[in-house]
Amino acid sequence: MTGSTPISSSHLVRLEGAGIQRNGRWLVRGVDLSVAPGEIVTLIGPNGSGKSTTAKMAIGVLSANEGTVKRKPGLKVGYVPQKLSVDWTMPLTVRRLLSLTQRLKASEIEAALDAVGIAHLAGAEVQHLSGGEFQRALLARAIARQPDILVLDEPVQGVDFSGEIALYELITSIRDKSQCGILLISHDLHVVMAATDTVICLNGHVCCRGTPAAVSRSPEYMRLFGGKAAGTLAVYSHDHDHTHLPDGRVLHADGSVTDHCHPDDGHHHAHDHDNDHGAHASHHGHRHEHEHAPSSLKTSPEGTHHHVR
Ligand SMILES: Nc1ncnc2c1ncn2[C@@H]1O[C@H](COP(=O)(O)OP(=O)(O)OP(=O)(O)O)[C@@H](O)[C@H]1O
Predict the structure, then answer these.
(1) What's the pLDDT at 96?
(2) What's the structural domain count of the chain?
(3) What is the ipTM of this complex?
């Protein structure tokens, strides 16, 4: 069955076996995912693995070609897209950015900007904002109508490491105060917001899922970034040992090819280091240790930054 029907459980959104096909190719398929009020779900995966497509499917921007997508009736969505189509040659104030695609009262704009700590920038031109200020403005735009669910597609892009920590703290505090659900797409394959309840790794379909491992135990991490970073970011340690073909099928280690992963397929939480992330359709056999958290943080994530401006 395909379609979008109301949801009966306490979930805000629930995808079951959901997939999107374009031009005879599955962009992503077999996705099972749900977000409950107050829950933070983080999607990770290589470039082109279907993270944005999955998020758009969850909020109804794209309709699933297979499986089911259910949303709570009347669900209010706040969305920070990965890219924004705005004509940046035109002057645009932060205040105006918030109300470009939604009707907002002045008091709602003020409250949203205040909540993200940039009330003083209401009249500033968007072009002049720093990377962190710009992401806060996008966040303000997304929370202005007090959504039930926030969908944040790479909300820390263009932001330096300390800014990233501050933004993740802000996102966590927004969740704490409003108890909205959050579906977050991370630009980093290994390091996710520590407040994340569930990490889902995509590579054309769901490869594995789990809770992020705490990094606070890693002495190197503490030495490099201090306790604040350790409390905000966590390494997601996982390993895949099968290969995803461009058409969405899976090549297993024994040479067999199937449409989907086997239920207990190669998601070993191994602890040796064999970092081999390719583009999609490449062998997917990465293994990470907590001790490697600092280097994965220091080096820039693998080309996943898309600057919105
Ligand atoms: N409308 C479309 N028509 C055809 N192919 C598409 C369309 N939208 C996305 N794709 C393709 O679907 C795949 C998944 O794209 P998606 O943007 O969801 O990946 P992603 O994991 O978010 O990637 P990134 O980390 O690079 O942002 C990509 O190969 C992309 O080229």
Answers:
(1) 94
(2) 2
(3) 0.97
Q: Which atom of ligand 1 is nearest to the CA of 187?
A: 25
* Cβ–Cβ under 8 Å, residues 55 and 185: yes
Residue 184 resides in a domain: yes
Q: Are residues 244 and 131 in the same domain?
A: no
Q: Which of 15, 44, 53, 189 to mutate to test the pocket of ligand 1 (most atoms within 8 A of CB)?
A: 53
- 101 lies in a domain? yes
Residue 86: the pLDDT is 74
**Can you tell me whether residue 21 is helix, strand or coil?**
strand
pLDDT of residue 105: 95
186 lines ligand 1 (CB under 6 A): no
Q: Determine the distance separating the centroid of ligand 1 and the alpha carbon of 106, expressed in angstroms.
A: 36
- Which is more confident, 187 or 33? 33
CATH number of domain containing 165? 3.40.50.300
- Domain extent, residue 90, equals 82-146
**Does one domain contain both 272 and 188?**
yes
Q: How far is CA 147 from CA 133, 150, 151, 228, in A?
A: 21, 7, 10, 28
Asked if 93 and 219 sit in the same domain, the reply is: no
Cα separations in angstroms, 190 against 59, 216, 304: 25, 15, 12
**Does 207 map to a domain?**
yes
Nearest CA to ligand 1 atom 11: 27
Structure confidence by residue, pLDDT tens digits, 268-308: 332 223 333 332 223 333 333 322 222 222 222 222 222 33
CB-CB contact of 169 with 155 (8 Å): no
Question: Ligand 1: which atom is nearest the Cα of residue 50?
Answer: 18
Highest mean pLDDT out of 108-112, 204-208, 231-235, 296-300: 108-112
